[in-house]
Design brief:
Distance between the termini: 33 Å
Helix content: 40-55%
Number of domains: 3
Largest sheet: 2 strands, antiparallel
Structural class: mainly alpha
Shape: globular
Radius of gyration: 25 Å
Strand order of the largest sheet: 1-2
Number of strands: 8
Length: 536
């Protein structure tokens, strides 16, 4: 228990500083599928026009509901949000100072472009999709699988490969020298029913797994629909390999192997969603047939599911919520908007970067999360939803704020170093929760204690260990500038006059405690605050 003990002085400091900062809380107002070309080579579509169209469609709903939207986020709020959403980590102090002092009218658009083309964007997307694709808990058991999937995804996102091609490559993966996508199959033990349920949920937004044992009780999927889709994976097997060759997975597709309805001898032939039987005369093995259909015009689900998921990444919830349940019984909050966004995504050549670029440039995305009075229902997107940081975002942002291991946390660190860092792995394991919704916080006492007094927090805020505190000991820093720097490092904003005055007074009235140690107390309180732990 000593590891998680909280000193009386630091606990009192947290209460004191939190009470003094109530005025600055978040509730207060503040100023064609067979075309395998890379997405970047597809015909360019004016994203400004589409961004305006998105705003118009969202505003139409506000008018109908008599909703007044929140004001635009100020530069500090927008900067921190854009960094977290597009790169997974808060901005460094130098970037905050430069952005807040820049008067260029196009600086937000320029920031979005710089972040989207940075190595950190590809790494962040790879982390998001790895967590979507791989079963929970796998990280503690097979880091090589994690690394293989992460690196494969990262290379595709860095190239800005067409999304339909990424999915097609995954579906026909055979492993060998590039085993990343093959490890997705082995993580699910090559079970046809698991592969069917997960690929339908991830890539099509369909919850067909409820029809595995019986016809879906609330949707139109039948048991034969589920097993017909599972049949595409029934002839897949893993070839013999050395147990030591953990990264050299090879998959093969046989010419035999079928699925049957449970408790019967009825063989179910391969069948695409919506009841279309696969044509055995098309040639190729079953997974090839599925990959062709997945990226074809006959598939009404792929582009729609991805568009909804990207919207959810940026806005905290999907136009259809949950994002992986695009059933007719679960209609979108803005049907016309989802339809036009899907058409836009297809027209741009399944270009994910273009979709992120366009949405991040909308007024809707740049609204403040701070509103006066009762907030509008979240499905109206009249203010930015406050989102919990993922465990990865929290660890990397703590590291960024503390000037610790910047290569790992910042704009392009080594994936291998990050995934195999034992301190990072321990932090992620302790901070893991069962809920993957960004808009809901379900961490409990163990996570709170980990943040308050874990090894990373001690390293970040203790005199003699903290790089940030050591840097602030330079004689040219006044205490006011030191407090200002801590706010820029954690909240990506300058402190208010009240915050600055109060905290400078706290640091200088040491009562026998040296000023660096008191600065560490302030830093500790900022890092443990809701404003730091949330993306708003």
């Amino acid at each position: 228990m000593k590891r998680f003990s909280i000193s009386g002085r630091r606990f009192s400091t947290l209460i004191l500083i939190t009470w003094s900062l109530v005025g600055a809380s978040l509730s207060s107002p503040s100023a064609a599928s067979e075309d395998l070309r890379p997405a970047s080579s597809a015909r360019k579509v004016d994203f400004h026009s589409m961004a305006n169209r998105v705003d118009a469609l969202v505003a139409e709903r506000w008018k109908v509901e008599s909703i007044t939207p929140a004001p635009l986020a100020d530069d500090a709020e927008f900067l921190r949000r854009a960094y977290l959403d597009l790169t997974g980590v808060i901005p460094p102090v130098a970037e905050v100072r430069a952005f807040l002092s820049d008067d260029a009218p196009q600086k937000r658009e320029q920031l979005i472009e710089r972040l989207l083309t940075s190595p950190a964007h590809a790494t962040h997307l790879a982390t998001i999709w790895r967590n979507i694709m791989l079963p929970a808990g796998l990280e503690s058991g097979d880091l090589n699988s994690i690394l293989g999937v992460q690196n494969w995804l990262r290379s595709r996102f860095a190239e800005n490969m067409r999304y339909d091609r990424i999915v097609s490559e995954l579906l026909v993966a055979t492993g060998g020298r590039e085993s990343g996508p093959a490890l997705f199959y082995t993580s699910l033990e090559l079970k046809p029913e698991e592969l069917a349920a997960n690929t339908a949920r991830i890539f099509l937004g369909l919850q067909i797994q409820c029809a595995q044992c019986h016809d879906h009780p609330y949707d139109h999927w039948s048991q034969s629909d589920f097993w017909g889709y599972a049949a595409f994976f029934a002839q897949l097997q893993q070839s013999e390999r050395s147990p030591a060759a953990t990264m050299n997975v090879t998959l093969v597709d046989r010419n035999q192997g079928d699925v049957t309805l449970p408790d019967t001898d009825e063989v179910v032939p391969p069948k695409y969603p919506e009841g279309l039987l696969a044509d055995s005369n098309e040639g190729g093995y079953r997974r090839q047939q599925l990959s062709i259909w997945m990226a074809s015009r006959d598939n009404p689900f792929l582009a729609r599911a991805l568009t909804n998921r990207v919207w959810s990444n940026l806005f905290g919830r999907g136009l259809v919520e949950p994002v992986d349940d695009l059933s007719p019984r679960n209609p979108p909050s803005h049907p016309k908007l989802l339809e036009e966004l899907t058409d836009y995504f297809i027209e741009t050549g399944f270009d994910m970067r273009m979709l992120y670029r366009m949405l991040a440039n909308t007024r809707a995305y740049q609204l403040s999360s701070q509103v006066e009075g009762k907030p509008a229902p979240p499905e109206l997107f009249a203010q930015m939803m406050v989102k919990s940081l993922s465990a990865e975002q929290l660890y990397d942002s703590l590291s960024q704020a503390a000037i610790r291991n910047i290569v790992s946390a910042g704009m392009g660190g080594s994936t291998s170093n990050r995934l195999f860092d034992p301190q990072r792995r321990d932090f992620l394991a302790r901070m893991e929760t069962s809920n993957r919704s960004a808009s809901e916080f379900d961490a409990g006492l163990p996570q709170a204690l980990m943040l308050m007094n874990g090894d990373l927090m001690v390293e970040a805020t203790q005199q003699g260990k903290s790089r940030m505190l050591t840097a602030l000991e330079a004689p040219w820093f006044s205490n006011g500038l030191r407090i200002e720097t801590l706010f820029l490092a954690t909240y990506s904003r300058f402190p208010t006059n009240h915050e600055k005055e109060h905290l400078v007074q706290y640091v200088e009235n040491g009562d026998g405690v040296n000023q660096t140690q008191r600065l560490g107390d302030v830093f500790w309180a900022l890092l443990n605050s809701a404003e730091f732990a949330l993306n708003h």
